[in-house]
Here is the input.
Amino acid sequence: MKIAMLTSECNPLYKVGGLADVVYSLSKKLIELGDNVVIVVPYYKNGSTHFDYEPKKICEYNIFMSWRKQYVGLYEYKTNGVTFYLIDNEFYFKRDTYYGWGDDAERYAFFSMAAVEALMAVKFRPDVLHVHDWQVGMVPCYIKERIDSRTDFYHKTKTVLTIHNPAFKGMMDKYCLNNYYGLNDRLFDNGIVRFDGQVSTLKSAIAYSNIITTVSPTYRDELLNYSTSQGFKYCLELRKDDFYGIVNGLDIEEFDPKTDPFIHRQFNPRSYILGKKQCKADVLSSLGLSPKEKDKNNPLVSMVTRLYEQKGMDLVVQIIPELVQRNCFIAILGSGDPYIQQRLEKLRDKYPNNIALYLGFNNQLAHKLYAGSDLFLMPSLFEPCGIGQMIAQRYGTLPIVRETGGLKDTVVGYNPISNNVKKANGFSFIDYDLNGLRYACNVALDTYFNNVEAFRTIIHNAINLDRGWENSAKKYQEIYRKALLK
Here is the structure.
C-alpha cells in the first residue's frame, strides 16, 4: 500500500510529545513490512535542527487561502529508509516554538492545504492518507468537499484519523471555513464540523475519515463514555463501528538497555541486577544525591513527564513527603505548569538529600533515569496511551500507574492478596485520589523492601515484554485494508 502520513511533528526531525515518536516508529515498521510510506511535516526553522544534511528542494508553488496568496517551498529529506516531504513557509514556521501561537489555526490550515498539494506535486497518489490529531483534521473534509483538481487525484484515496490527544480540538471561528479552506458555511450550519458554537478540526476529521483510531483499546472506550470523552462522545458514537483502539509500540532500537549509549552500564534481562545497581549509583551521583552507605539500596522513584495536572502532578506533590518518609530517593525530569514547578522546587528545598529536580528536558538524563530507577511514577488523570511506562518496563523499572487508557492496557498491577505475581509487570490503582496513589506506592515499597523474590519476578515479567511496533503496525495494516473497502 501507498500511505502518506500527515503530521505536525515527527522524529527524528521535530518532537514535542509522543505524537512524533508514534508517527516515525509506525512508518519505519510499515516500510519494513513492505508498504510505501512518506511523511509530510512542516519545515520548522526555529534555530534547532536535527538534519544530517541539508534537505533537497524539489519545487515551489503557491496556494490560495481566500485572499491570501501564500508561498510553499517543498523539500525532500530521507533518513533510515523514511522519506519526508517538508512544507516551507517562514512566515508560518520560522518561530521560537512549534505550537501555542495565536494564529495556529491559520498556520495548520496552510500546512494542511499545502500538504495536499505536495503529494500531487511529487505524484505520490496514496491509497491511504493517515492524518494525526487536530492540526491536519480538516484534510479529509477538504479533499472531499473541494471540487477541483484534487477530486480526481484523491478520488480513490481513503482517510484514516488517529486521535492522540483530544484535549486539543482545533477550535476556530465559523468564518475560517471559507477564509482559510474555501469551504462552504453549510458544513457548519448542518453541524458536521460544529462543536460548541465553533468549528473543530478534530470533529471534522471524525466525521469525514473512513476509519478512526486512537492509541489504546481502553482509551477508545473512555472516548465513548460521556465523562471521559472530551466532549466527543456523541460524534464518536455515530462512528463507533469504524472506531478502533490500537496500543502504540515502542522504538526498541532507541530504548534498549543492551545497547543504550547513554547509560552507565548496559544490561540485558539476565544481567539486569548488577547493571541496574551500577546505573542507579551513577544517576544518584550525577543528580547530586550521595547517599550514606546504609542508604544506597533505598529505592529510587523517578518521573520523566510534562508537569501538568493531566499527568497526576497534583497527587504527586502530595505523596512526595510520604515517599521521603519511607526512605525513597525521588528524581523528576520535566517542565510545564509554573505553579507545579514551584511546588516541586519547595519540596526539593525541604528534602535536598532525597529529591532531585531537573526542569526542562535532557534526553541523556531521561535514559539514565529509566535505567537506574527502581520505580517509575505515572499516576495520570487520563492517558490515551503513554510511552514512559513502556520504556520503564523495558529497562526493568516498575511503573506505578493509574488504571486509565493505555496505562491500563500495558500495566498489570501486582496484587499481593490474589498473588498475581506471575502476570504482574508493575503496580496500579483505580480511583484518582491520594488514597489510591498511596495504596499503589505502599504495595510497591512493601514488595521492594520485604519481598525481594516477588519484586524480581515482576521485573522479569516487565523486562521481557514485547513492546516493539510489529504487532501494532500489522493492526494498522488491517485498518488500512478496511478503509480501502469503504
